[in-house]
Amino acid sequence: MLVLITYDVNTEDAAGRKRLRQIARQCVNYGQRVQCSVFECLLDAAQYRSLKAKLCAMIDPEKDSLRFYQLGNRYQTKIEHFGCKATYFPEDVLMV
Fold first, then answer.
1. Global confidence as pTM
2. How many helices (H) and strands (E) does the chain have?
């Protein structure tokens, strides 16, 4: 299923900047950054539960916000892209 993960981390202190880096690093391991604090992740149910638990443990719930949008397996018709960045298709082959 495709999951959209968004976060807003308070970076007024060093601890917040560290949380921001840790959260971004975890998200990069599971998906593609599509905007500064927005990731599209193609996950199975176990990966989703694992990533959600990791990210929720990292945030400070008094200062930070974390959101998960489950777009499901038929996500292609639910996404429209406009603007300068190239469109990203999670199931396409990536050349490294």
1. 0.79
2. 2, 4
Question: Which alpha helices (DSSP H) does the chain contain, by range?
Answer: 14-30, 45-58
Q: How far apart are CA 70 and CA 79, in angstroms?
A: 12
How many other CB atoms are there within 10 angstroms of residue 74's CB atom? 9
Give the span between the Cα atoms of 96 and 83, in whole angstroms: 25
Q: Which amino acid is at 9?
A: V
Encoded tokens for 26: 């975890």
The β-bridge relationship of strands 31-35 and 65-72 is: unpaired
Tens of pLDDT, residues 10-32? 999 999 999 999 999 999 999 99
